[in-house]
From TrEMBL:
InterPro entries: Class_I_gatase-like, DJ-1/PfpI, Prot/Nucl_acid_deglycase. Keywords: Glutamine amidotransferase, Lyase, Stress response. Residues 85-221 form the DJ-1/PfpI domain. The keyword Hydrolase does not apply. The keyword Lyase applies. It comes from the Bacteria. It comes from Dyadobacter sp. 676. It holds the Pfam family DJ-1_PfpI. This is Type 1 glutamine amidotransferase domain-containing protein. One of its GO terms (biological process) is methylglyoxal catabolic process to D-lactate via S-lactoyl-glutathione. CDD domains: GATase1_Hsp31_like (cd03141). Belongs to the peptidase C56 family. HSP31-like subfamily. GO terms for molecular function: glyoxalase III activity. One of its GO terms (cellular component) is cytoplasm.
Length: 226
């Protein structure tokens, strides 16, 4: 079984001089759970090539982050992610959209990523996403024309969390609001920044970066233990 992990290529904010990109533990924590089950994983990004990492997420006191950040093969995969046209959706049982603010600019606009998610889902695969990565699902339409997330229970980075990290002036939209506009049933934890996931059949979403392990664990349960 193979999993396809999607990361952003975008490292800039419209006005902030600081850089954004992938939020590291949203990748490493998910990757670690999958690796322990010997799941093969490919990295893809909207444009292929280098995946930038948000400097604020480079927490190397996090043992899992440190271990993968110092792993040459892992770093090589981050520098050489596939383009969507390089991969065949039929090869994957699962797709995972990692977050970080960078994703808000390039995930929703990528028709190629939407097609990968749609195909994997319609072939009975799992679609999973976390935090800002959930924005990739906003425009995914199934073959019958309906939005994938319409009438589905989902979570993702909340308005409160966005306000607390004070990036409100920078983000192009509030993810929580957009998910509701798409007809999704949005849920979240009572307290910001605690682990929380939502599952609706073959769609699993995590609210924030603390939820990545749980998303991965739940996805494996669904794939292997049913």
């Amino acid at each position: 079984m193979k999993a396809l992990i999607v990361c952003t290529n975008n490292d800039t904010y419209p006005t902030k001089t600081s850089k954004t990109g992938l939020w590291l533990n949203e990748l490493t924590h998910f990757y670690d759970v999958m690796a322990k089950r010997r799941i093969l994983m490919d990295f893809v990004s909207p444009l292929g090539g280098t995946v930038p990492v948000d400097e604020r997420s480079l927490d190397l006191k996090d043992e899992c982050n440190a271990r993968y950040w110092e792993d040459a093969a892992f770093r090589q995969k981050l520098r050489n992610s596939f383009k969507p046209s390089d991969v065949d959706a039929a090869d994957y049982r699962l797709i995972y959209f990692a977050g970080g603010h960078g994703a808000m600019w390039d995930f929703p606009a990528s028709v190629a990523l939407q097609n990968l998610a749609k195909t994997i889902y319609e072939r009975n695969g799992m679609v999973t996403a976390i935090a800002h990565g959930v924005c990739a699902l906003l425009n995914v339409r199934l073959s019958d024309g309906t939005l994938l997330i319409h009438d589905k229970y989902v979570t993702g980075y909340s308005n409160v969390e966005e306000a607390l990290v004070s990036f409100v002036s920078e983000v192009p939209f509030y993810l929580e609001d957009k998910l509701k506009e798409c007809g999704a049933h949005y849920t979240k934890a009572m307290i910001p920044f605690v682990e929380f996931i939502e599952m609706d059949e073959r769609l699993i979403t995590g609210q924030n970066s603390h939820s990545a392990r749980k998303v991965a664990t739940k996805a494996l349960e669904e794939l292997f233990e049913k």
